Amino acid sequence: MRLCLLTLLVSLLLPLSATAQDMSVRQLTEPLAVDPGSAPSDAGDSRAATGGAQTLADILARQRGEKIDDSFRRNATGDPDSASGIAAQLGTLGGSSDSELLRAMRYGSADITVTSRSPAADVIMQDGGMWWLKFRQGPLATYGAYLLGATLLLLALFFLIRGRIRIDGERTGRTITRFSSFERFGHWLFAGSFLVLGATGLISLFGRTVMIPLFGKDMFASFALASKWIHNNVAWAFMIGLIIVMLNWTLQNIPNKHDLKWLAMAGGLFSKGVHAPARKFNAGQKMIFWGCVILGLSISASGLSLLFPFEMPMFAKTFAILNDIGLPGWFGLDPFPEVLAAQEEMQYAQLWHAIVAFVFMAMIFAHIYLGTIGMEGAFDAMGSGEVDEQWAREHHGLWVEEVRAKEAENASATPAE
Predict the structure, then answer these.
(1) CATH 3.40.50.300 fits 130-179+250-413, yes or no
(2) Which whole-number Å values give the CA distances from 137 to 127, 204, 343, in the listed order?
(3) pTM strictly above 0.85
(4) Is the pLDDT of residue 382 over 70?
């Protein structure tokens, strides 16, 4: 008997519940007939039923990434003239509710007075960074990790298949000066600072995901603060090293006809006993050099923009130039924004900084591999600065001839005692 009564009760309540849910959805998405004296009377106002609030259709449109007319929220910031008179010391709060005041702060229409005099002091709240946060935590971190992981995997496979590139001939025991002490200083200043910047930058991007589960939030907070300080200050050493490298080697890395032959032979990297002619720098090293220069200058510019966002904004001007040449139209895109707030400048600069850093690190992984375990005798060039003559003849034969010819010329010009 009890079971029959329970079944009857459930069968009566389910239709009522479904009807109530349908009514709730319709109330959010459709205008309902309302009393003209208690709600907006504009029959064309789709939000008449909600008193002007957003509808479910608005919410779903935002979730799909569609642009909506948010003036119904942007302009709902209260009316100062509707404030009640002050009757006591702790009287009226004015003509705006707390939610209306927060909305005005979010859309930048509130009358704000702050003690700070920074260029962005009047920006109390802004939600324009959500796209940046999603891109940073999503595609940037994901594809950046894929790029570094794939580079390391390919280098490991290359080592397993090709093995270490050995010196084919017998070592002569005679050495030739490959790089001076000042050249090596500039290289190691540039390379060492880059490794530190790369490590601290990865901590900034992946630290919360990887380190907090291992060490906890308190320890990571101290570690992240130290990493940020190191990153900001070691950046100056990186830029000085880049300048020294450019002064030392720019002229020697100008492409020449021998580079085409080196590229056609792939520098002998995939064939034993094959040695392409090259001067002091071969085509592969020149590509690394110009990659370091271009990426180094770009990452330095975005880094300076992050350190001094109000003094050195770079993307509004860059976007204006790109719009002038019509670049967005080539890809069917709308013109880029040419007026950016300081926060937006930092968002673009941070993303560009990270993208360039990932490409830079992938390239340097290959350079480190060939300069250490990938090629016998290569590390000596930047270690002691002296390389075996046989190694130099196999990898930089034209350069060895130039050095020996210059030595002979100097010897003939020196009077005998």
Answers:
(1) no
(2) 16, 11, 18
(3) no
(4) yes
